[in-house]
Design goal:
By secondary structure, this protein is of the alpha+beta class. The chain has a single domain, classed as outer membrane lipoprotein receptor (LolB), chain A, CATH 2.50.20.10. Helix content is about 20%, strand content about 40%. The chain is built from 5 helices and 13 strands. It has a 13-stranded antiparallel sheet. Strand 2 and strand 3 form a beta hairpin. The longest helix has 17 residues. The radius of gyration is 18 Å and the shape is globular. The termini are far apart.
Length: about 250
């Protein structure tokens, strides 16, 4: 299908979630989140219970507060680095080029804190800023055939990400309902494994100072085709609140 049609879908989705003008007047989203699921168990990571995060609206940057321990702060800085600060704001751990560290047998069974800061940081940043993420340069879009998850069927859009954005994989599929709200995205979580194909549902939309966002997200395995398995839940994410921060 025409790339012009795809770009019109993107424009409608951005408008439905709050609009480009409102987004461009923000510098960050401050949020409280909880997350759990099989991924946490399999990588020997504690669940997140009402953890505060802050996602930049300008660049791929996400901060965890009181994580991995109370009084500490950790950051994802694009593709370049992750780091953890102690209570005195001194860096106590850092890792350059963190994606390249996901090699070798240890990470099949256990992630350390810096591994999780990278994975959780880029994943949450992507989730919180989509679909406004598509305002950035470098994306390529392609319309796919609709799929019958509802009546009317959801629109499907394949997005190819630019290289400068840390994300699950370069090609992902986004599903929008008749109101142009994001209802699902499909991807391969490459740092977990080339086999880690998943469908990510987006539900329970709420409005936060003009920005609409799903507050209930569930990730389930999709080993083949376009129909996810009913379980297990790989990641469950609850967004308790979002506080858009305006440009000062």
């Amino acid at each position: 299908m025409s790339t012009g049609v795809a770009h019109r879908i993107v424009d409608k989705a951005i408008e439905a979630h709050g609009g480009a003008d409102r987004w461009n007047n923000l510098e960050a989203l401050d949020a409280d989140i909880s997350a759990w699921g099989l991924l946490f168990t399999s990588k020997q990571r504690p669940v997140l219970n009402h953890v505060r995060v802050c996602a930049s609206t300008r660049v791929p940057h996400l901060t965890f507060f009181d994580f991995p321990r109370f009084g500490q702060r950790s950051e994802l800085i694009g593709r370049e680095e992750v780091r953890i600060f102690g209570g005195d704001e001194k860096v106590i751990a850092r890792r350059a080029d963190p994606r390249s560290a996901f090699r070798g047998p240890r990470r099949w069974f256990r992630w350390d804190s810096l591994d999780f800061v990278y994975f959780g940081g880029y994943a949450l940043w992507n989730y919180l800023v989509t679909p406004f993420l598509f305002l950035r340069d470098g994306f390529q879009f392609e319309m796919l055939e609709p799929i019958g998850n509802g009546d009317p069927a959801w629109v499907r859009l394949r997005a190819t990400f630019p290289d400068d954005i840390p994300t699950h994989c370069r090609e992902q599929t986004f599903y929008f309902d008749e109101h142009h709200l994001l209802r699902r995205l499909d991807y391969t979580a490459e740092v977990v494994g080339a086999w880690a194909h998943a469908a990510h549902s987006c539900e329970n939309y709420m409005e936060f100072d003009g920005i609409k966002a799903p507050t209930r997200r569930r990730v389930r395995p999709m080993p083949w085709g376009s129909r996810p398995l009913p379980g297990p839940t790989l990641v469950a994410l609850e967004i308790h609140s979002i506080r858009p921060k305006r440009v000062s």
